[in-house]
Write a structure and sequence with these properties.
Ribosomal Protein S5, domain 2; single chain; five-stranded mixed beta sheet; 22% strand; globular; ribonuclease P activity; alpha/beta; RNase_P; 116 residues
């Protein structure tokens, strides 16, 4: 995650992105993106359901997803978009390079452009 980006924390924000945003399912993650129509830094939210595992497993999956967003946020600055990244059971055992590729592909599939 880039330093200037902020987090989505309230349930209502997550629900708004889920209801109005574009969805891009991948083997390692599901990405939901909603254009806000401003030039502020992208806001990110992360969620992993109990189906994925116990709290230790879910937290590890969430950490991996945050790291993917942080690394790719350095090379691709996103603006004016809210993004929710949902962990799947496949996220846990997936190679990190594959997660990076999944995130890149999901961004393009959801129509999120650099500086959009």
């Amino acid at each position: 995650m880039a330093d200037q980006s902020t987090r989505l924390k309230k349930r209502a924000e997550f629900l708004r992105v889920a209801a109005k945003g574009r969805k891009a399912p991948m083997p390692g993650l599901v990405l939901q993106a909603l254009e806000r129509g401003d030039a502020d830094a992208a806001r990110f939210g992360f969620t992993v359901t109990k189906k994925v595992g116990n709290s230790v497993v879910r937290n590890r999956v969430r950490r991996r997803l945050r790291e993917v967003v942080r690394i790719l946020g350095r090379e691709q600055a996103l603006e004016g978009v809210d993004i929710v990244v949902i962990g799947r059971s496949g996220t846990r055992g997936r190679r990190f390079e594959s997660l990076l590729a999944d995130y890149r592909k999901a961004l393009s599939k959801a129509g999120v452009k650099e500086g959009s």
